């Protein structure tokens, strides 16, 4: 049992929770709670940490054993309650966290769908927005989410929490520059749309039933002129009152579900 906050494993977890660089270098990220543990793919779990009080429950131990992390497993560690609380990123820790291996999905895999739907995010900074886009994207049938390197880290604990498990299932790719992938999208016949205040048409006046990609920009500044200038079409969401723009995740959700609606051929 781990009883010291100076334990090397504890320090490693703390680094993974606080620093994107540590996550990148190790290829791991931290997830907390029973739901996130249950949904994590077994082959991607590197290590499980459970508090002493968590392990006092027979039901909890059964869940661990069911997934192959019983008391005899070398990949499961018991952690003193006080030490575990120092690790938790939540107000009321559930007593279980695990280290999970990161996965980058190649663009080619995202384009294998008959009619791909991609969300391409530029310089997004809010963890909640990114997590919500992944979660909404799974629900709307998105083929993949592509981030440029200036976006908030996909494996930030706040992003992970807000995905509610979708981080395990939604294909995601991080690229140095979005411009680098645009030639391949064009080659594959993907039509790109930029959500922009200077949009030529309202979003519901376009046909998204073909191969489609949406550009979503930074919360404060929107899309860069460089990227919006490379889109095949600028679209806008109609606004009333004095509102100029919507939250990035809200705008993305509207576009994803309009695409889903059109593809279901709902009038």
Automatic annotation (TrEMBL):
Please name the GO terms of the biological process aspect recorded for this protein, alphabetically: methylation
**Which domain of life does this protein belong to?**
Bacteria
Q: Report whether Methyltransferase shows up as a keyword of the record.
A: yes
Return the InterPro entries for the record: Alpha/beta_knot_MTases, MRM3-like_sub_bind, Ribosomal_eL30-like_sf, rRNA_Methyltransferase, SpoU_MeTrfase, tRNA_m1G_MTases_N
Q: Which residues form a coiled coil?
A: none
Identify the CDD domains for this entry: SpoU-like_rRNA-MTase
Q: Name one GO molecular function term.
A: methyltransferase activity
Q: Which SUPFAM superfamilies match?
A: alpha/beta knot (SSF75217), L30e-like (SSF55315)
Residue ranges of every copy of the tRNA/rRNA methyltransferase SpoU type domain listed in the record: 117-257
Alphabetically ordered keywords of this record: Methyltransferase, Transferase
The chain positions of domain MRM3-like substrate binding read 7-97
Tell me which family the UniProt entry assigns to this protein: Belongs to the class IV-like SAM-binding methyltransferase superfamily. RNA methyltransferase TrmH family.
User: How is this protein named in the record?
Assistant: RNA methyltransferase
Q: What is the lineage of its organism?
A: Bacteria, Bacillati, Bacillota, Clostridia, Lachnospirales
């Amino acid at each position: 049992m781990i009883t010291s906050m100076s334990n090397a494993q504890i320090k490693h977890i703390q680094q993974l929770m606080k620093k994107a660089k540590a996550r990148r270098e190790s290829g791991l990220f931290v997830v907390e709670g029973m739901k996130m543990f249950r949904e994590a793919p077994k082959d991607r779990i590197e290590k499980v940490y459970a508090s002493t009080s968590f392990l006092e429950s027979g039901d909890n131990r059964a869940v661990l054993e069911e997934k192959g992390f019983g008391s005899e497993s070398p990949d499961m560690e018991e952690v003193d309650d006080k030490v575990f609380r120092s690790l938790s990123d939540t107000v009321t820790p559930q007593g279980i966290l695990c280290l999970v291996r990161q996965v980058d999905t190649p663009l080619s895999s995202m384009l294998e769908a008959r009619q791909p739907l991609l969300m391409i995010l530029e310089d997004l900074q809010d963890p909640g927005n990114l997590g919500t886009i992944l979660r909404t994207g799974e629900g709307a049938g998105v083929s993949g989410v592509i981030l440029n390197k200036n976006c908030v880290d996909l494996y930030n604990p706040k992003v992970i929490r807000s995905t509610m498990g979708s981080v395990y299932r939604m294909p995601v790719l991080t690229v140095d520059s979005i411009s680098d992938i645009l030639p391949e999208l064009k080659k594959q016949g993907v039509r790109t749309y930029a959500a922009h205040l200077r949009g030529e048409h309202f979003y519901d006046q376009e046909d998204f039933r073909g191969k489609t990609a949406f550009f979503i920009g930074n919360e404060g500044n929107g899309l860069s002129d460089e990227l919006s200038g490379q889109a095949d079409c600028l679209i806008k969401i109609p606004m009333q009152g004095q509102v100029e723009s919507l939250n990035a995740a809200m705008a993305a959700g509207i576009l994803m579900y309009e695409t889903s609606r059109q593809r279901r051929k709902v009038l």
